[in-house]
Amino acid sequence: MMLKHDILFQLSETKVVAVIRGNSAEEAVELSKAAVQGGIRAIELTYTTPHVQRVFEALEYEDVLLGAGSVLDPETARHAILAGAKFIVSPSFNEDIAPVCNRYGIPYLPGCMTIREMVKALESGSDIIKLFPATNFDPSFIKSVNGPLPHVRIMPTGGVNLENIQDWLAAGAVAVGIASDLNKAYATDGFDGAVELSRKYMQKTAQ
């Protein structure tokens, strides 16, 4: 059994979370396995993927930290945790999801864009804040937030790519979420293309 501290440590160590949005459970499994083969060790399986529980089951024995994304309510959060999710991500802060995650000792990473939202998330026990969509922000935003809130750890998601990932990490991001790039690579170059792109992301984090 993994403790919350261990999960947070793994997220901060791996640096890259692959956000998997499959048109089918089978596609999501393939995308996830490609990301893992490319070196990514944290996967966020979104609940917009049809029959997402099948994806959790298919990846149960992979050497990867599985989380759930696009979680909109506490019922879905509990379903994901029982399916094996080790962290819960939502596009916005939901005060009803936080207690469920706290009850099971699972990190809750809510999407926030304002200081007010971040403070509410912190007060509800969130250890990492998902800056979403990060396309609306510059990496320097993290420093601006850490001025009044030095203990806030931020994971930008949406708009992170190979060109700016190092800028985000250098600015203080605890990790980054990548999504559309993987889908595009898979659609264009198949499984091998997604593996190669994942490998490039991990190489960027090591530079």
From TrEMBL:
InterPro entries the UniProt entry points to: Aldlse_KDPG_KHG, Aldolase_TIM
Gene3D superfamilies, per the entry: Aldolase class I
EC number: 4.1.2.14, 4.1.3.16
Keywords: Carbohydrate metabolism, Lyase
Biological pathway: Carbohydrate acid metabolism
Superkingdom as given in the UniProt entry: Bacteria
GO molecular function, one term: (R,S)-4-hydroxy-2-oxoglutarate aldolase activity
SUPFAM superfamilies named in the record: Aldolase
Signal peptide: none
Family named by the database record: Belongs to the KHG/KDPG aldolase family.
Subunit structure: Homotrimer.
Protein name: Bifunctional 2-keto-4-hydroxyglutarate aldolase/2-keto-3-deoxy-6-phosphogluconate aldolase
Organism for this UniProt entry: Planococcus notacanthi
